[in-house]
């Protein structure tokens, strides 16, 4: 039988407010345990929550970015359960009336665009952390994280493969960092993914029983976990067993998922509206102001890059993988357009865009990856890259020389023009000089000349190599080719 | 000095005829003498009180003149007060020393009112007789065989016995008004949101409201000027302009329309209590008011609605007492679940556990709609009754409680009978309205009777005026229990 995997994701994004969602304590990561937990976070008797306006603003920003409905009235509810790192014995979350509903996000998979529906995004507080090591059999509780604002983003079960799920998670990660609501740091838990996975016979339109893989904190684990889980479920069903609804954990060491609890063991959370918090009512002016302040979104930039610069879908998607990347690309291109006086009409802007794109996605990305740097930490600024590419466009630098200049710039030797002058890397443009060298090379290599005339193309390449060697690489290869062919034909 | 009003005490202090330290010493001595009989206080800290009194005297010496500067007050042990043990009447918090001040405490400190001690109360304010306190029952100063009412029974008894000139209380279903009635003092539950709940240990968040308890309406008005005010740390605190609650005290009552809901005079009302409140209505008519009969048809639902909603909220509010961070933890346990179970089984008393179980039940999957949601709907109907009634009258009056103070132990084994002693008061909390209890006589047993006065939202100044004019014409509020 052919099987189809059905996946929906619940993503917890930590909102990057300076203080917590219901208290004034700091949200900074990495402080000594319990130093960032105030009376409200500790749930001392008598304390009360006060909603952080910044968290609401970020939720609205997200809702607008995914074309969702922003609920003008949303309600905080209490989710009741006991756990040592949950100080109040309940989590304040949104249940029946979340702030964001019915949005969507486009993803690119295998050259195709697919739209994933987002059913809701709601605000809630994070719990603290239980530390099971270092306490000799006891458990330590760190409440620094308790009360950190989260936006839980819940998709419809619209994904059909681990690759789609990863593409969606990546697109979501790009978006939340792009619009500046989350730092996106997965190691620190700022972006955590739960995957609901079920399988069904291909062609069926009813959903299978799902199991939820909890708390995946890397795209790689997400992919591995879903692939394992889907295989496991198919195996179970093919062996005649049925799937029980459950929560499972992914073990990266074994590459397997294992049962946490079944649905029957799940808590009855006894949700009810939190009487300490009034319903959140949003006014139109505020929403309009947030909409006006939104940056151009990745999907809009992609469309523009393709339409205005003729870039491929792949290039457009790669250049908008992060806002910093897109901004780097655009400022390098703008600098190049300005310095070279390029025009859209004659196609020179599109050519320059392709050149910038190739360098950003190629040598620059490679250099950044090598040193584990983000593009915002690049050793070559956008305007300096543009300065180098201007010399490529005007023919001063061959691709080979450009790479040498790039390496020198990366090493901190200064701007392109200074490096070109200091190293004498200017592409040979004096045709008299080049003609003299060509003549010398032909005279010194009669054997190759003979072979070429006998029809051996390899001999021609050897001659080009000799000329390039004699010019120490500064000759324009096209010019060398043309001159050689002309002389040999004589 | 113990028979002196807040206004008189303020005058004594302002005129230099007494210092705050002297006043506090006097009250502390009386507390020391009477508390073994009455058990009205859980915590007394002479040194701390006198330090606060000295600070108030120094402020006065520097020229400060705030109205109640140096006048001491007792606080219900539900308010967190920095450095004071704050128990909420529970074993769970028997050794909990609050590290911060409730808004109400901050306001009293800012006004220069030294704290005389923390008063006894039903555990987590759950009770109508003060018998659920871990620290033992409070005796009614009028008759030590009787309960003082609850849950603010310690504050009520302390004021009635003049162990303090005034006290704070909280009222979730009648916990200021009912004990005020049963001890012959005056108490006001303000409109929900007028007094901040920050630092007031939560019982049922949508119903809890702090307020003043004192011999007279005038005292309560002066205290309201201290207690009321917006607090950004309580999201249900209402941002309103500050008002002077004494401003209308001396308005005449001519033309006042008093609504008398027939539901407040049913078969459950004791005859002696009925006679006392009828006499009060007659007094009001003499003062120029007229009475109109009306109906609050959904009032009969208020006790069952209350006993769904209040436990629901309480079951969640009390989850934080888990033995993990502070408060009581069972000495022995096998694992985490066992630690929770033993801690909560040992740390909470029977009434608190009963309400946690009821609340957990009504919020459970499959029961939520039938209980919690249904109760919320009825709550709106109950509020709607009042809204319609206030078209026909300015204030509503009736008995605060159906009987005078009952005997200790009389209702302890019958929770439903106990719950019914709040039958006239809980609807006011469900609607969020302000309500008062004013002493209006005595029952056949010589125990006090309270008259309840209910007003529309934010009509506290009017209620205090209505009560004050009555108190100018009567002396019930000046009677003090003998034999102490």
**Uncertain segments of chain A of ≥5 residues (pLDDT<50)?**
none
**Global structural class of chain A:** alpha+beta
What is the gyration radius of chain A calculated from CA atoms? 30 Å
Instruction: Give the spatial strand order of the biggest sheet of chain A.
Output: 2-6-7-10-1-11-12-13-14
List segments of chain B where confidence is low: pLDDT < 50 over at least 5 consecutive residues.
none
What proportion of the residues of chain B is helical, as a percent range?
Answer: 25-40%
Largest sheet of chain B: 8 strands, mixed
- Termini distance of chain B? 15 Å
Distance between the termini of chain A: 71 Å
CATH superfamily of the domain at 6-236 and 246-255 in chain B: Amidase signature (AS) domain
> Strand share of the residues of chain A?
15-25%
State mean pLDDT of chain A (0 to 100 scale). Answer: 90
Biggest interface goes to: A-B, 28 and 43 residues
Structural class of chain B: alpha/beta
**What's the pLDDT, averaged over the residues of chain B?**
96
Quaternary structure annotation: heterodimer
| Pattern of helices and strands of chain B | HHEHEHEHEHEEHEHEHHHHEHHEEH
Number of helices of chain B: 15
């Amino acid at each position: 039988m052919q099987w189809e995997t059905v996946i929906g994701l619940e993503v917890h994004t930590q909102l990057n407010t300076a203080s917590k969602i219901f208290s004034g304590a700091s949200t900074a990561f990495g402080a000594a345990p319990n130093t960032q937990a105030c009376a409200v976070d500790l749930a001392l008797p008598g304390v009360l929550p006060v909603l952080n306006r910044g968290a609401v603003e970020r939720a609205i920003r997200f809702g607008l970015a995914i074309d969702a409905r922003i609920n003008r009235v949303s309600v905080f509810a209490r989710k009741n359960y006991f756990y040592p790192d949950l100080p109040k014995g309940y989590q304040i979350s949104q249940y029946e009336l979340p702030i964001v509903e019915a949005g969507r996000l486009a993803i690119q998979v295998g050259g195709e665009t697919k739209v994933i529906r987002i059913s809701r995004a709601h605000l809630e507080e994070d719990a603290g952390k239980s530390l099971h090591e270092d306490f000799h059999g006891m458990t330590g509780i760190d409440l620094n994280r308790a009360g950190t604002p989260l936006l839980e983003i819940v998709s419809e079960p619209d994904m059909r493969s681990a690759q789609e799920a990863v593409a969606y998670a990546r697109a979501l990660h790009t978006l939340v960092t792009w619009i500046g609501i989350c730092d996106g740091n997965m190691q620190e838990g700022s972006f955590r993914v739960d995957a609901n996975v079920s399988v069904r016979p291909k062609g069926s339109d009813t959903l299978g029983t799902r199991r939820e893989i909890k708390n995946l904190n890397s795209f790689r684990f997400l992919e591995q976990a879903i692939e394992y889980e889907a295989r496991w479920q198919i195996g179970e069903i093919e062996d005649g067993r049925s799937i029980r609804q459950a929560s499972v954990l992914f073990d990266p060491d074994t590459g397997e998922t294992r049962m946490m609890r079944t649905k029957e063991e799940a808590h009855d959370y006894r949700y009810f509206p939190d009487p300490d918090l009034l319903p959140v009512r949003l006014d139109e002016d505020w929403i309009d102001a947030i909409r006006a302040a939104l940056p151009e979104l990745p999907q809009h930039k992609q469309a523009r890059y393709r339409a205005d610069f003729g870039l491929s879908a792949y290039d457009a998607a790669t250049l908008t993988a992060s806002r910093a990347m897109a901004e780097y690309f655009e400022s390098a291109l703008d600098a190049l357009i300005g310095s070279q006086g390029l025009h859209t009409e004659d196609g020179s802007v599109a050519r320059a865009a392709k050149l910038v794109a190739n360098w950003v996605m190629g040598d620059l990305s490679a250099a950044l990856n090598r040193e584990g740097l983000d593009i915002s930490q690049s050793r070559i600024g956008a305007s300096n890259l543009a300065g180098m590419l201007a010399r490529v466009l005007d023919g001063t630098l061959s691709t080979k020389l450009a790479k040498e200049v790039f390496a020198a710039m990366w090493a901190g030797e200064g701007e392109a023009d200074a490096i070109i002058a200091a190293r004498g890397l200017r592409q040979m443009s004096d045709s008299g000089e080049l003609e003299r060298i060509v003549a010398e090379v032909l005279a010194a290599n009669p054997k190759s000349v003979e072979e070429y005339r006998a029809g051996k193309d390899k001999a021609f390449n050897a001659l080009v190599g000799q000329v390039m060697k004699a010019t120490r690489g500064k000759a324009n290869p096209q010019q060398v080719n043309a001159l050689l062919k002309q002389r040999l034909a004589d | 000095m113990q028979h002196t009003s807040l206004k008189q005490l303020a005058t004594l202090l302002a005129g230099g005829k007494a210092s705050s330290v002297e006043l506090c010493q006097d009250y502390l001595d009386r507390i020391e003498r009477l508390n073994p009989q009455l058990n009205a206080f859980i915590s007394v800290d002479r040194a701390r009180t006198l330090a606060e009194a000295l600070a108030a005297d120094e402020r006065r010496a520097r020229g400060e003149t705030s109205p109640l500067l140096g006048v001491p007050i007792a606080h219900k042990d539900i308010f967190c007060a920095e450095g004071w043990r704050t128990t909420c009447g529970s074993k769970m918090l028997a050794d909990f020393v609050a590290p911060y001040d409730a808004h109400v405490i901050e306001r009293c400190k800012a006004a220069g009112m030294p704290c005389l001690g923390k008063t006894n109360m039903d555990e987590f304010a759950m009770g109508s007789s003060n018998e659920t306190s871990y620290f033992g029952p409070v005796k009614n100063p009028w008759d030590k065989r009787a309960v003082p009412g609850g849950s603010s029974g310690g504050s009520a008894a302390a004021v009635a016995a003049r162990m303090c000139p005034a006290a704070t209380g909280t009222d979730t279903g009648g916990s200021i008004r009912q004990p005020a009635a049963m001890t012959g003092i005056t108490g006001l539950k303000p409109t929900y949101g007028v007094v901040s709940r920050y630092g007031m240990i939560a019982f049922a968040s949508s119903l809890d409201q702090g307020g003043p308890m004192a011999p007279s309406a005038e005292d309560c008005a002066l205290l309201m000027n201290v207690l009321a005010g917006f607090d950004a740390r309580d999201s249900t605190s209402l941002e309103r302009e500050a008002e002077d609650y004494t401003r209308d005290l001396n308005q005449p009552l001519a033309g006042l329309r008093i609504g008398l809901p027939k539901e407040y005079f049913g078969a459950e009302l004791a005859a002696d209590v009925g006679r006392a409140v009828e006499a009060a209505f007659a007094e009001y008519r003499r003062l120029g008011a007229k009475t109109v009969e009306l109906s609050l048809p959904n009032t009969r639902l208020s006790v069952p609605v209350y006993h769904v909603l209040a436990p629901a909220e309480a079951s969640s509010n009390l989850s934080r007492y888990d033995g993990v961070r502070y408060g009581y933890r069972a000495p022995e346990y096998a694992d985490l679940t066992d630690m929770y179970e033993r801690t909560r089984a040992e740390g909470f008393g029977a009434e608190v556990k009963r309400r946690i179980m009821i609340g957990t039940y009504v919020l459970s999957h499959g029961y939520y709609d039938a209980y919690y949601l249904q109760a919320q709907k009825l709550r709106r109907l109950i509020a709607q009754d009042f809204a319609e009634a206030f078209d026909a009258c300015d204030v509503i009056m009736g008995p605060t409680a159906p009987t005078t103070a009952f005997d200790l132990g009389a209702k302890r084994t019958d929770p439903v009978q106990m719950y019914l002693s709040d039958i006239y008061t809980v609807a006011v909390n469900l609607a969020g309205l302000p309500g008062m209890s004013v002493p209006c006589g005595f029952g056949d047993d010589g125990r006090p009777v309270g008259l309840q006065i209910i007003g529309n939202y934010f009509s506290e100044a009017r209620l205090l005026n209505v009560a004050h004019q009555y108190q100018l014409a009567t002396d019930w509020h000046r009677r003090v229990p003998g034999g102490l």
